[in-house]
Every structure is written in structure tokens, then in C-alpha cells.
């Protein structure tokens, strides 16, 4: 299943008051769901399955990955005569038609065929006393494809954060390995660069 929404700024800003009460969402009237059957679409209301977000950009817009025509080509498609674009990020619709962005595709951890969204795990671990910062990421695993790991900044004991996670997270979401860092790598805008953490730890 794929989630489709308009790329116009009005969709992001139409009801800014609602965003204050629903963190992590994008809302608009032109949200639809592409079903697995080719060419078939359905009303997005009441659909809660996770999928890939596709956008219908303005006719004048164009986007390309620098020096990577193959990646650019895979990011565009034509559906029912409409040009659509994706960066591969996962999202979902709630019962009211609100679109939630569940993170970045590059950050998604797939372990044993199950998707683990780092944000979900990090929000739980950050509530543990002694955890100041945390980045959850995946590393290659021969048995599971990837295993969930966490880099922690803070003075919490590993045993304490493991016990905290065991009480609050499903088994497949619990980090297998914990690493301690003095600080986390961040972008120029201050966002954690999860994809850079394995390299810092010598795991990539």
C-alpha cells in the first residue's frame, strides 16, 4: 500500500491549530491511498496501514538526485496520468484522514522482516532516567537481516536502560546492543544523523 498526498504548501498549513494537538502529522483533503490492484484507488479515511508517501507536486516543479539518474527515475512515476514523487519515507493515515510521517526510509530498521521505526524506540528510551540523548539504528545481522541497536548519551547504567526497555517495548523493538557516546552526530539544523552513528562506532 502507498500513501499519496498533495505537495502544495496549503496542505501543510491549512489547519495549523490541529498540528499543535497531533504531533508528527500532515493534514489535507487531497490524501488518497493507492491499493495493490493497478489503477484502483480508495478513500483514505479510516485506513491506518503504514506505507510509502507519494506526493503530487506542482506541474512546474522538478527534482533530481545529483549525479544519480537511476535514483531520480525511481523516485518519479505516473499514476492515472498524474506525475508523482517520493523520497521513500514511510507514513500512515489515521481514521480522520490525517497523514503521519513515521520517519525517514534511510533510518528504518527491518529485523526479521518486521519494520522498526527508530522514533518509536527513542521516545521510550528518552523517558528513562539518566538518558540525555539516544539514537536507534540498525546493523547488519546474518540471522535477522538487521538488529536494533542504540547509542546512548547520559550516565544511565546499561542494565537500567535494558530493564526500562524490557518493561515498555515489544521484544522486536528492544535494542540488542547499547553503545555509549559523548554526543550524537547532527545535521546543520540540529537533527540527529542516525545513519552516521554506526560509522562513529566502527560498525559500518
Write a compact overview of the structure shown.
The protein has 204 residues and is an alpha+beta fold. The protein has six helices and 14 strands.
Task: Describe it.
There is one protein chain. Helices cover 20% and strands 32% of the residues. The strands form 4 sheets. Strands 2-9-8-5-1-3-4 form a 7-stranded mixed sheet, with no helix packed on it. A 3-stranded mixed sheet has the order 12-13-14, covered by helices on one side. A two-stranded antiparallel sheet has the order 6-7. It contains 6 helices and 14 strands. The radius of gyration is 19 Å and the shape is elongated. With 204 residues, it is an alpha+beta fold. It has 2 domains: 101 residues, no CATH class; 94 residues, 2-Layer Sandwich (GMP Synthetase, Chain A, domain 3), CATH 3.30.300. A hairpin with a 2-residue loop joins strand 10 and strand 11. The N terminus is likely disordered.
Any idea how many domains? Answer: 2
Mean pLDDT: 77
Number of strands: 14
Give, in order, the helices and strands: EHHEEEEHEEEEEEHEEHEH
| Alpha-beta content class | alpha+beta
Task: Please state how the strands of the largest beta sheet are arranged side by side.
Answer: 2-9-8-5-1-3-4
Give unreliable regions as ranges. Answer: 1-16, 26-48
Shape: elongated
Radius of gyration: 19 Å
- Give the proportion of residues in helices: 10-25%
- Strand proportion: 25-35%
Number of helices: 6
Amino acid at each position: 500500500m502507498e500513501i499519496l498526498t498533495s505537495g502544495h504548501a496549503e496542505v501543510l498549513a491549512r489547519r495549523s491549530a490541529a498540528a499543535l494537538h497531533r504531533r508528527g502529522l500532515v493534514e489535507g483533503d487531497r490524501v488518497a491511498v493507492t491499493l495493490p490492484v493497478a489503477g484502483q484507488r480508495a478513500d483514505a479515511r479510516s485506513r491506518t496501514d503504514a506505507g510509502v508517501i507519494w506526493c503530487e507536486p506542482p506541474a512546474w516543479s522538478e527534482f533530481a538526485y545529483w549525479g544519480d539518474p537511476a535514483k531520480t527515475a525511481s523516485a518519479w512515476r505516473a499514476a492515472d496520468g498524474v506525475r508523482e514523487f517520493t523520497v521513500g519515507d514511510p507514513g500512515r493515515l489515521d481514521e480522520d484522514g490525517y497523514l503521519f510521517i513515521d520517519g525517514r526510509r534511510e533510518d528504518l530498521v527491518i529485523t526479521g522482516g518486521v519494520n522498526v521505526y527508530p522514533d518509536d524506540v527513542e521516545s521510550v528510551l528518552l523517558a528513562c532516567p539518566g538518558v540525555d540523548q539516544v539514537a536507534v539504528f540498525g546493523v547488519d545481522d546474518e540471522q535477522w537481516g538487521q538488529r536494533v541497536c542504540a547509542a546512548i548519551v547520559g550516565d544511565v547504567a546499561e542494565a537500567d536502560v535494558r530493564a526500562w526497555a524490557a518493561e515498555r517495548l515489544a521484544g522486536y523493538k528492544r535494542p540488542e546492543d547499547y553503545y555509549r557516546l559523548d554526543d550524537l552526530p547532527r545535521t546543520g539544523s540540529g537533527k540527529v544523523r542516525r545513519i552516521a552513528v554506526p560509522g562513529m562506532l566502527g560498525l559500518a
